[in-house]
Structure formats: C-alpha cells, structure tokens
Design a protein that fits this description.
This protein is an alpha+beta fold. The protein has six helices and five strands; from the N terminus they run βββββαααααα.
C-alpha cells in the first residue's frame, strides 16, 4: 500500500520531431501531467498528437506547455515538431526543380507585353533572356554551400536581374528593361524563390502567381485581335 515514485530520464538527439506515447493502444490514464519547455517561439505539433491544455509564452523566446488530465481516454500521443535550419542543398534542388515554372510565366509575360507596343523580339532574344534568368539557379546552387544562404540568394538575384536587364536595355530600351521586365523578374523569379524559404508555401505561391499573370494578361489582351497580331508576325517573318 505504499507509494513509489519512479523517475525516468534520458538524453537523445534528433532533428525533426519529438513524441511521447503514454499507451501503445487506446487506453485510460488517470492523473496525467506532462510539462514541456521549448526554447523556440514557432511551435507546431505532429499529426495524431494532442494539443496542450495550457500554453504560456515565456518572454517571446519560448513556450511553457502543459498537458494535464484527471482522466484521459485516448490513443494519441504528445509531441513537438522541432524547427530546423535551412539546408542549402535541399533548398537549391527545390528551386531548380520549380525554375521552369517561374521561367515559363516570365517568358509568357514578356511575349505578351511586347505584342502590345509592337516590339519585335526574335527567338534568339528569348533564348538569351531565358539563359540570364536561369543563371540565378545555377549560381545559387554553387554558392549556397560557400556563403550564407541569404547572401547567396541576394548575390544570385542581383546577377540574374542584372544580366536580363542589361541585355533588354540594348534590345528594347532602358525603360522596358527596368520597369516592365525588371518588375516582372522580381515577381516571378525573386518572389517565387523566396517562397521556398517557408516550407509549405511553395505550392500556394505558384497558384497565386499563375492567377496574377492570368488576370493581368487577360486584362491587357482582352481587346486585342489575335488574328491581326499573328498575321502581322507572319508577314514580318516572311520579309
């Protein structure tokens, strides 16, 4: 009839998440209490885990969480997702994998806005623009392991935007290179790539960018006669 106090401690190393399962199956637990101190502010819980009954923020630098139940009937556990640092290799691979999407959106935008003022761009011009655009991914892939990720990102963005803007300045003009093309590249390359720093927002950013360019192109070309445009282009190529 005596009370025995049993204390269990352990040390572990991990990267992704921590879990504690009171029972391996659905069962009943009485007078359950678990306290957790997290030294990070962005907390998240794994799937199939219970939310804490109390969450107290500690000076904005961490959280003191408590799971306390007088009687608990559940098969779920308790856990915490551990924030991880950005891995340069994985980040560069994801950016390179989705680069054709942002490049395609950018080229479509450039093609349409050059139709309206009747600016004639040759396929070779688009090839050089695409090469300058993709230089971002190439440079970032090789500098992310040598420089801080943020510095590598800024360097790659500046080089790519500089290449495209300086080339279009010679082909079309300074205003088109800095305003129309420059702003579009900042949106469809730099803005698109920034979304990769926030896990789970890449797909959402693609959707938003596609909707934005669709709306913009529909508004710009709603009164455009495509038959006349392509007839004019065919006449120019024939000459």
């Amino acid at each position: 009839g005596q009370t025995v106090v049993l204390e269990v401690t352990y040390r572990s190393r991990g990267m992704q998440e921590w879990k504690y399962l009171p029972t391996t199956e659905v069962g009943q637990i009485e007078d359950f209490s678990l306290e957790m101190q997290a030294d990070f502010s962005e907390i998240d819980f794994p799937r199939l885990t219970m939310s804490p009954s109390k969450n107290k923020t500690s000076n904005g630098k961490g959280h003191e969480l408590e799971w306390k139940f007088s009687r608990l009937v559940a098969g779920y556990g308790i856990g915490m997702v551990i924030p991880s640092h950005i891995q340069p290799g994985d980040l560069a691979a994801h950016m390179s994998f989705t680069a054709p999407i942002s490049l395609g959106l950018f080229l479509v935008f450039i093609y349409v806005i050059t139709l309206l003022p009747k600016i004639d761009l040759h396929p070779m011009n688009f090839l050089f623009v695409a090469a300058g655009f993709f230089s971002f991914n190439l440079l970032f892939s090789y500098t992310a392991d040598r420089l801080p990720v943020e510095a590598a990102f800024l360097l790659s963005s500046a080089v790519s935007v500089g290449l495209v803007a300086s080339y279009l300045r010679l082909v079309v003009g300074s205003r088109f290179a800095l305003v129309e093309a420059g702003m579009a590249q900042l949106l469809y390359q730099v803005g698109f790539s920034v979304a990769h720093f926030y896990d789970g927002y890449t797909g959402l950013s693609i959707t938003v960018l596609v909707i934005l360019i669709l709306f913009l192109l529909m508004q710009l070309t709603g009164r455009l006669s495509w038959s006349s445009v392509f007839a004019r282009r065919d006449t120019q190529f024939a000459r």
